[in-house]
Write a structure and sequence with these properties.
By secondary structure, the chain is α/β, with parallel strands linked by helices. The chain has one domain: Nucleotidyltransferase, domain 5. It has 4 helices and 5 strands; from the N terminus they run βββαβαβαα. A 5-stranded mixed beta sheet has the order 3-2-1-4-5, sandwiched between helices. The chain is globular. The two termini are 23 Å apart. The mean pLDDT is 87.
Length: 144
């Protein structure tokens, strides 16, 4: 079994996949689109990756506000969650993603990546951080 991690953005969807032992998350790709509400190609690509990797569960970044309220971005993520569940039949877990993009930028800054290279990988790295956070939480619960 593998789990997919997704980082939903206005023009992109970062994708990460777990290993079969559910220990690590690896960035896979960034799906780009012209307009935020044109999701058909994005959903089709997610379905292809689900088949390719044998995904059985999805973790979607949930961009809550820093004060723990639900804003416009979180509402959009809830809609994406519903759409993916309806299309794939797989469970989609919303995972608090506050500061994951900041963390991803920090990692890339430490790697001294230039802006162009950073832009190419930031979304899939953020998806990987979201998924890794979920995997670590699940592992910790098993050991408690």
């Amino acid at each position: 079994m593998r789990i997919m991690g997704l980082d939903y953005g206005a023009a992109t969807m970062g994708v990460a996949i777990s290993d079969e032992l559910l220990i690590t998350a690896q960035p896979v790709e960034t799906i780009r689109r012209e307009k935020e509400n044109q999701m058909r190609h994005t959903y089709q690509r997610i379905e292809e990756l689900i088949q390719e990797y044998g995904v059985e569960k999805i973790v979607l970044g949930y961009p809550k506000n820093m004060n723990d309220t639900i804003g416009e971005k979180a509402l959009k993520a809830e809609k994406v969650k519903e759409d993916i569940e309806r299309r794939t039949g797989l469970p989609v877990i919303l995972m608090d993603e506050r500061l994951t993009t900041v963390q991803a930028h920090r990692v890339l800054d430490e790697a001294e990546m230039n802006y162009k290279k950073k832009a190419a990988v930031i979304d899939k790295l953020a998806a990987s951080i979201i998924l890794q956070t979920y995997l670590d939480m699940q592992s910790n619960e098993k050991h408690d």
